[in-house]
């Protein structure tokens, strides 16, 4: 087959690692491959075991490769909102060309100027998000390229994250034999698929309930104004079921996914499930309503924690309501429970693409869409010209962590981080 322009996203979560292979044709995204495996080495959204995380990434990549029959060597990586800070910033430059037509170079220079800000050594710049460009005093310009002007300004948000967390994810990706083409904040990526522009303008909360954590992001006047991560998620519901039903964690997860109901009032009493009792060969009969009683209690607690955190984040007045996403919200009854707690409009966001029509894939698909948008604005190419392979796949070259001293390994990762950001901003 002929070579194709391919984009690959890597969404590293506490419970699962997802790889999305997409093809963009005339700005239309087609999903052609998916990898989704259980993750190891992460807790509450943070990497706690490098080797286990690398193994999980390789499994997800391998699954996606086998589905499509290609070799993946470049990925767009999502960074968790854990320990993220949002800083208002601005940049000002003189238009460089003699004819005073603003081009990609001017846009890159003004964004580069916006990064000239003092940040602590333990912080790393993840992204610069433009809110508006100003051309010779003309404000609210979304794309200044092609306009004539002498002075170009940009108002935006500088996103910084924990240097340790960013370096750990980059180290894992590198050891899995992959090259990072872009780094994106997960809530920003998810918002491109999950949220409507009107919702962002009015004020909306995007709530992503993952396996080990829940990410809350508030958008107002079209931009991200606050984000926070709570250390609770779907895995806590699974543990509650395991304890309450006296069954294994594995069986509890299956019960949650296939039989779970989040709203006690509408759960069925006549629908009964036989649950194996852990440590014996006995089974116990539970109705869907009895199981829902356990699920609702934990999920209601999560929603109340979200509500309290929103009050702290200046997110109490939200005319755009709440948009839920993440694997946990796939359960029946989630919207009913959320509306009762939040007393606001609630909907569940799902990607409208064949093969990924589940809330858990919002971030993975959003990473491709958001990175593509950024690359267009900055005149960068993030895609790979990947040849589809009809025969045996190429092996992924994996760095052996035991072949180099720890100090040398750290220096290599530091160099990797610098080269990534140099590519994105130079």
From TrEMBL:
It is a peripheral membrane protein. It comes from the Bacteria. Pfam families: FtsA, SHS2_FTSA. It is found in: Cell membrane. Gene3D superfamilies: 3.30.420.40. CDD domains: ASKHA_NBD_FtsA. The keyword Lipoprotein does not apply. One of its GO terms (cellular component) is cytoplasmic side of plasma membrane. Coiled coil: none annotated. Residues 7-194 form the SHS2 domain. GO terms for biological process: FtsZ-dependent cytokinesis. Self-interacts. Interacts with FtsZ. NCBIfam families: ftsA (TIGR01174). Cell division protein that is involved in the assembly of the Z ring. May serve as a membrane anchor for the Z ring. Belongs to the FtsA/MreB family. This is Cell division protein FtsA.
